[in-house]
Design brief:
333 residues, mainly beta
Length: 333
Amino acid sequence: MVVFGETNTDGTGSAANLSETNGESIGLLDWQFDSIAYFLHDNFVYEGENIYASIQNVDLTFALDVTNNAEWNQTGLKEVSVTDGQLQNDGEFSQINISGFVDVHIDSSDMIEWLPDYEVLDISVYEAKRGAIDVTGVTNDVHIEITPYSNGEGWSNTFSVATGEGDDHISFDAFINPNRLAASTSRWTEFDVNLGSGDDTFYYALTDAELAGAKRLVEGGEGFDTLTLSTDTDDLSFSDFELVTCTSNSGVSLSVDSDLLAENASELGFILDDVSAQFSDDYTSIEVADLSQAQSNYLSEHDLDSSEFAAVTVTYGDESYTLLTNEVSDAWS
């Protein structure tokens, strides 16, 4: 079921509150493939090609596209909800694309199995200010790409995302629409992401947080989880990750303290690949050593060239932590 509307009129509530009784709803078999169905809010008048919102099911490609063609933040069309209870009965899709809504809600938490003939469910959310995506019931791999848009720090700028047992890929991208104001970036965006089990990847490429203490939190969960950074960062909180790497050819730096190391501790070592650790000043000691055979095998198992890495032990008070890194500072020796 897809529902459009607006339930949040005072800064509280969310698209998750949408229902058939308070929004415009449609089941996914109410139109034929290769066609477009149009929905207008009761307060609006249809004039020629001035379409306020559309939903498109594209020619048997099993892709669900939901686009708001009205002004962003248009009264009555700020929210959209896609829920799996009716999706499972009405149709099967391997791709969900949502664009132009302030608040997005996607819930597949009760689905036992998603598309046995497809290996990946792709979800794309473009120009949303906030949202909640729960795909914990999906057993296949899930790829979620979120490109936020915000008009300011007021009301909520938070995305919550929860995935299940697949090898999932989640990305937050700071692409700026040239048609938007220059100030319209992701600097107000906050998120709380739980990647569940599986060997997951989280890609982080948002604008630096505008406000001190902004919540940007991701939990890797079980499995071998990878954090991929696009630039230097000190505003991301993360836990239960085994590897941090980057997309920059010149590498990136990461602020590291005892809390971060404790939250990402690993028996053989927390891996930093082309990432320079900037340790907090309160460390007690740093020691650099050659890899053990087990550490070398561990890196090789995850397609990393162990010949480029060293084992670094950093001690904070009574606690010591091991990192495996190919960015060793001369200051540590």
